[in-house]
Amino acid sequence: MADQEYKPSHSPDPTEPADPDAARPPATPGTGADRTSDAVETVYDASTGAAAEDRVAVASQFQLMWWRFRRHRLAMFGGIVILLFYSVVVFADFLAYASPQASEAERSLMPPQRVYLFDDGSFSPHVFGLDSRRNPQTFQREYFANPDDKIELSFFAEGFEYNLFGFIPTNRHLIGTKDREIGESVFLLGTDVQGRDMWSRLMYATRISLTIGLVAVIVSIALGVVMGGLSGFYGGWVDMVVQRMMELLYSIPTIPLWMGLAAAVPDHWSILRIYFAITVIIALIGWTELARVVRGRLLALREEDFVMAANLAGASQFRVIFVHLVPLVLSHIIAAVSLALPAMIVAETSLSFLGLGLRPPAVSWGVLLQGAQNIQAVALTPWLLLPAIPVIVVILAFSFLGDGLRDAADPYGM
Amino acid sequence: MSANQQITTPPGDTRVIGDTILEVNSLKKFFPIKKGFLRREVGQVRAVDDVTFRVRSGETLSLVGESGCGKTTTSRCILRAMKPSSGEMLFHQKDGRVIDLAKANRSQLRPVRREMQMIFQDPFSSLNPRMTLLDIIGEPLLVNGIGNRREREDRAAELLKLVGLRPEFLSRFPHAFSGGQRQRVGIARALALNPRLIVADEPVSALDVSVQAQILNLLMRLQNEFGLTYLFVAHDLSVVKHISDRVAVMYVGQLVEFAETDALFHHPKHPYTSSLMAAIPAPDPRKRGIRARLKGEVANPAAPPSGCYFHPRCPHAKDICKQESPIFEEVEPGHFVRCHRARELKLTGVPELDNSGAVSASDS
Amino acid sequence: MSTEEAPLLSVKDLQTHFFTDEGLVRAVDGVTFDIHRGKTLGVVGESGCGKSVTARSLMRIIDRPGKIVGGSIMLRKPRNDGSNQIDEIEIGELTDDGREIRSIRGESIGLVFQEPMTSFSPVHTIGNQIIEAIQLHRPLDDRAARNRATELLTMVGVSRPEERLDELPFQMSGGLRQRAMIAMALACEPDLLIADEPTTALDVTTQSQILELLQDLQEENGMAVMLITHNLGVIAEMADDVVVMYLGQVAEKGTVDEIFYAPKHPYTKALLQSIPNIYQPSRVELPTISGSIPHPYNRPAGCPFHPRCPEFMPGTCDVHVPETLVSPTGQHVRCFLYTEGAVRIDREEATAGKDASQ
Amino acid sequence: MLGYIIRRALFSLVTIFLVSILSFAIIQLPPGDYVDSYIAQLQASGTPVSTSEAENLRARYGLDEPFAVQYGLWMRQVLRGNLGTSMQWQRPVREVIGDRLALTMVVSVAALVFTWMIALPIGIFSAVRQYSVADYIATTIGFMGLAVPNFLFALVVMYIGWSVFGLNVGGLFSAEYELQGWSFGKFLNLLSHLPVPAIVLGTAATAQGIRVLRNNLLDELRKPYVVTARAKGLSETRLILKYPVRVALNPLASTIGYMLPFIVSGSVIVSIVLSLPTVGPVLLTSLQSQDMFLAGAIVLLLGVMTIIGTFLSDMLLLLIDPRIRMED
After folding, report:
1. pTM score, two decimals?
2. Residue B79: its chain A contacts at CB < 8 A?
3. Which chains touch A (3 or more CB pairs under 8 A)?
4. Which end of chain B is more exposed for a tag (fewer CB within 10 A), N or C?
């Protein structure tokens, strides 16, 4: 423990309010917790709001955080968007109506179809079939809607076989076509060069891109918490070494390094192996931010009096770390994770986009966006840029969520 | 230091001041100063520099001094929150065994910790915001394997009542309480293991003035009730005067004076103590008047002056004070001073009240 | 309060509120007092009583979401042209960052803060910051301003002032920084010095040095001082008149003698009794004020002190807001105990003198 | 202070050393070695290579030695300024990337300048007018800037440039200057092409800069010294610029340190999309074709450049923060 009396004088305590009289926000949302009466000396019970007050008094930190978080509209919104996206991860097969690999040169680069919801005033969602012909000048295929070829859409239609949740075999999909070959004639978001359905591919890409981020984050949490924890709790030379490692990784441009490592992943590996290799590469470099957060919090908390109180009570190191410190750092870790996830997703997307990450036949957002590399071509087929939208939306949602979590993580509003 | 010096407890006080509970002998704590790009040690901050005193069971002994004088470091060393550089700290355990805290290792300290607890200054940082009062107060019991869950709950409730809080509060979290109430919780936690010695580090200085008295009364009541020994670290001399039996004054890591409270406040023998007394603003507008103010600033503990550390600020300094360090000696029974001129100087302290309650004439 | 001359500063029914997300905080709620030339007004109160906000309101430096919502702050400022004319300026009506209010800040009213550590910018030298304060209000060139700054540091008892000017705040001790702070506040010889807890962060010995310095300076140039503190000892030592605040309101107001020897408000009385006094015998049970200060968001109805008041009268104190009463001697108290009139105040006074000295 | 500089410089050297090991590891990582690729290349161009020739080659390059020895050999070359030969280009690596490295720096610095030109005023404004409409707009733009990955932003800019204006916004030079030597005209042409990559590259960093500056400034605005300055009678604008902004700039100076790696990283990937003649596209093709000496050299040089940049930003911090300057 550092001696309190010899702290360097130029680091004033940041938690000290500048003006003792200035209105401080209450420690807890909404109700003033300090009102609780002093039992023995005086009975000071306000007649109103006593129930709400008791609720606050016995609320745990996580409840307080949740109350505070709930007031952060953007963060709530971000959270809901994230949940929606992760439900796509779970139900990708159900939401897709065509196999992501089913290609057909005849249907190359179809534009998205317009969906008509009503036919003669009655609800009957349908699209029109497309006729194609090759433009003799440009040799591009051009498509025309055929109003006579009405393709009706139905919900919970039968389609290709898959296992729901990985173990329930089924062939139901959210939408499908009546009395037509499944996945033959509906292309809600158009097709790519090889005539593969963009909508279905996007569903599968979402699954891959979002899980790769999640797995990478889990790996980095493990690394970050262990390294940051060691560094922050033990201080001294352990801290020194970990700090230098973090600085090192911080001062190197990561993308070239990622690219170098990713390029070393052999072509002949299975999709799964590549998936994990890329995850690990991303995580190896991404753990520093988490470690920094954990370390900073631990260093601050280690100096708190309640840690000393626990030590003096005879609590073991183990208890001090896991009962006192870790729960207090946890909320910060959660916040940091929600801010780290988008970085991981961008990393995967970038690498895959460059052709150094996941490679076809794997489908991820980055892989899909490879189709948009040639911008002159994209100008003619703009729907190939569509996968950019989920990337941006997810990252924004994570940023909002993370920001809200970070604010809520400290109920005392640091 | 004579161990048998009798302390007279004030009227109405039921305490029995007993034998030595803690002997601190030549305690030193130096912090290295590192400089340059190799971080070489170029010097030392002598935070605690040869401190010797005894604490008797049942008494309140206060450590006072200006910030940076080493009082907090001393208390942290005694609690073994930090390891002293050298010296002895002999703790007399309940069963009569004596352990040197300075040399004890973690496992040897464990049983002693139950007899020695601490009350903190900051009522906010001293309670884990994630734990209920039950968890906080019950922790010392839990980690020492005392009682089952039910018994711990009963004990915690009892402790809450003892410090003036409602037992229903056990399920609440610290954020629901004001500073004064939190300080009570901290006191309850310190009492959980039935300690004999409590180190209180500025226990009221973070509290509102109107709440200070509540906590001081509580501390004194608990002391009477349980025969607690307090080592009280504070800078507010009015509070120290109010609560202590004996007072040790520190200056730049050293004890400069040590005596019973009344002797020290009314008849200080060290010029520094006298200056401290003179500096206390009295809450009485009719006793105003410029007193001899202490000039200059506290010496730097990394480079203390020669001779007596206080001589550059001392109005009574002579040549000898610049050259020789005075020794800490007993000039009157129970009154220890580190000053070359302790026996000859007539210093003023806080005026004594005569029977009628008026201030005696010795004060201006 | 028997000064013939019109007060330097008259504050009437000042109200400063904070509009926070969680609700409205009436930090200052109808505060009235005068400050006279050459006198020291002590303002005592515990955390959240609004004493600092009051001080900042006088200079119009309330941070958002705070706002002065009512009352008047009248400054009587002597004209600079040598005539004996006095300008009456209503500070409450000046525009926020306008020229007029800026010419009052630093020029007519100086401010000294509690935190000598953080009250100076950490990356500018002390000299830079003091010279700026001089040049803002005085047409001096750099050289002359620097000389003036040296003079100021000498005046507040800083040794080696020339060198100190080029030092950074963190290189100085707390006591020195507080002296430099006072030097800066005095740069333009203000009519009023507001000292907001000037010694709270300092040790007793340094505290006494700083208090002595303030007394000397006041004697020399006859400025008025508004001294804000929670330390009754400091008030007793320094103040001529005293304002006792509780939760944004003036509980009691009078001369320092009246406050210490004839306190009227139960809060003042309780406060005086509950602080340990070095003249009292040790280890006696102190009379206490029960409970703790309510959170500013949860101000009790009626008299704000009623939940803690030993003289609480149910049905009155917790329902109605007490009026401010004035005794013939000019002592103000805001309490229902004295509503029958000034007679009761006089009766109290006869016995109270003895009480306080016991 | 000198101690600090020496410590910092030493640390930079150690970092460079570690980066060089990482770079070398990248060279070594792909299955097979340089000779395999070389032989494959020769055979592809119709020159058969025998096994003994291959062995000779291996011995010559020290490829049969352990990692540490090979690293030593590589470092000896690198320190002499010989970065090896690019297999793909059949030219010394130095020649291949010389100009491109300089242009990488130009683009990165342009992005950094853009970042601060935008982030400074917006950050200050949104802190001073916290919770105003303008603050919300700045914050939202900031979030967008952070959320849109560089390469996507580049794609979108390219797409809009092409589909709306019919322009190819890529590249750093117009076609007529592309292959020419350096001239004043070429320089002007470069300047006219810089804004698009600088904006694309700088946006994310700008967003980060705004957030960092805003947060720092909000912290500083609450400090007592601001009230002190206000109490002197200083006008609000002067006050904010002289005090809190000045103090808040200190952490910003160190921000440049970690922004640089960020920007250089971004430049690699943005250059590929915008086909800028920087090292980015070369790095990509060299990685794809396993031209490992080239790739290793680029990773090493980018690393060294950013480390030097970080060191310089630390020195800048030293210059502007007297507190650090005064220590030891």
Report:
1. 0.80
2. 312
3. B, C, D
4. C
